């Protein structure tokens, strides 16, 4: 493929022609409701990670999410500035939270990130994400992160493709100690069950 053809080729992040609009699950959290962590040791949202992002996501209208993340000193790349990988994590976590509104368990297959402005330590990153289309197991979504408020300038943005998986994905691939602990935690099991009964 020459460079001209590559320019015209549909990206892996472009929904196929048979993709459909996302449907919010009838039992999804109401708009404005905080989602809470999906796993206490998650680096993105868990309270059990001292240097984690502690990102808090809130259900929006349709299949959309808002979230906030405050850049801490532990998140630096250059002096006083957020590490790009940490910012990508914040986008990934926000995008992943969207799957709660579909009541689908899904993992990130592809994540494309634009870093538009540097983000200093101490900044509150205001994130917004939405699912744009669904094609079978493939969930297409976009996110932006703004500084200075929910309507402030865009600092980062992302496009993503999540792939629906069964809970076995985690049980088969996770380290046995953590899987055992998660399966012994009634709250964790309750959350997973809510997703498993997805019609
Ligand atoms: C008790 C236990 C507790 C559990 C807690 C649960 C809740 C926690 C929730 C936490 C969430 C935490 C979130 C995290 O932290 S996610 C962490 C980061 N992500 C991962 O670790 C995922 C690793 N990857 C995989 O496991 C597999 O590759 C997956 C599962 C994604 C697909 O492998 P699988 O064999 O299943 O499917 P397939 O290969 O037939 O692909 C299917 C379709 O997708 C298309 N495709 C795939 N990849 C890409 C790509 N990169 N670009 C473009 N397209 C891609 C592919 O072409 C095909 O399309 P089509 O041919 O059908 O058109």
Automatic annotation (TrEMBL):
Family recorded in the similarity comment: Belongs to the THEM4/THEM5 thioesterase family.
Name this polypeptide is given: Acyl-coenzyme A thioesterase THEM4
GO biological process, alphabetically ordered: fatty acid metabolic process
Domain named Thioesterase: residues: 80-140
EC number: 3.1.2.2
Entry-linked Pfam families: 4HBT
Transmembrane annotation, as ranges: none
GO molecular function, one term: hydrolase activity
CDD domains in UniProt: PaaI_thioesterase (cd03443)
Organism domain of life: Bacteria
Main location: membrane
Subcellular location: Cell projection, Ruffle membrane; Cytoplasm; Membrane
Species assigned in the record: Streptomyces jumonjinensis
Topological relation to the membrane, as annotated: Peripheral membrane protein
Recorded catalytic activity of this chain's protein: tetradecanoyl-CoA + H2O = tetradecanoate + CoA + H(+); (5Z,8Z,11Z,14Z)-eicosatetraenoyl-CoA + H2O = (5Z,8Z,11Z,14Z)-eicosatetraenoate + CoA + H(+); (9Z)-octadecenoyl-CoA + H2O = (9Z)-octadecenoate + CoA + H(+); decanoyl-CoA + H2O = decanoate + CoA + H(+)
Region entry Disordered, spans: 1-30
Gene Ontology, cellular component aspect: cytoplasm; membrane
Xref: InterPro entries: HotDog_dom_sf, THEM4/THEM5_acyl-CoA_thioest, Thioestr_dom
Keywords recorded for this protein, A-Z: Apoptosis, Cell membrane, Cell projection, Cytoplasm, Fatty acid metabolism, Hydrolase, Lipid metabolism, Membrane, Transit peptide
